[in-house]
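S.,

Sequence below, as promised.
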Amino acid sequence: MVGWLAWWGSSRHRRLTRDNVEQYARFRSQVDAKVLLRDAIGEQGRGITELAVAWTAPPEILYNLIQDVNCIGWAHVEAALADKRPIIFVTPHLGCYDIAGRYLAGRMPITALYRRPKQKWLEAIMQQGRVRAGAETAAADNAGLRVLLRALKNGGNIVVLPDQVPSSGDGVWVDFFGRPAYTMTLLPRLAASTNAAVLFFFAERLPRGEGYRIHIEPMTEPFSPDRKTAALQTNRMVEKLISMVPAQYLWGYNRYKHPAGAPLPEAN
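The prediction came back faster than expected:
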């Protein structure tokens, strides 16, 4: 119900969601755009309402939403820890990324990069919910980036959202589901400067309120030293995760926007 209220309440939201779903369906030719759009509207509503749980519920309730048996790929985390490598956890706007962060924070110290919300009153609530269980946050600015780098160099672990559109100068234009998207270059820079393990992950929303399943996927190959190639590697990993549960991606996000001051994408 909340998803449909959001759908009918904003023409901009309808346009972005429909356009992005149709772009994905063109890229994945066997996808039915109408079915995916209907499912995505419902999932976006679930994404809105579950934030109340992610930000306010006691930690023990949050941990019970994800049983360890529902964590696929934790062996990659253990391997990085055994090698004494810091870890960059990378989660796109897929499933419940706040629940995924709480799961990690319950098992190890983490510092998460975040972008301040446009509604200033919301930041205090969001921050209070995210720093429980010893987690730390760093705003997406120069001071926050120094916090992330210091955490990694001290052997700590961080969380980054790879599909936020960066500011001008902080990204490059590379394909995302067949269309140029301005993509951050921060992730490969952090990995190269700290020898960190890079693990992509997300919390899949299970049906009928049964909780969540964590998926953890390592990089298939090291980042290229070339900025555009490395950014494309990031997008390919994000595409891989989204294609596992496409209805749970935040299709209403303006992933293809042109940041002020950024160059135009090169014509193919």
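The two ends are 41 Å apart (CA to CA).

Coffee later?
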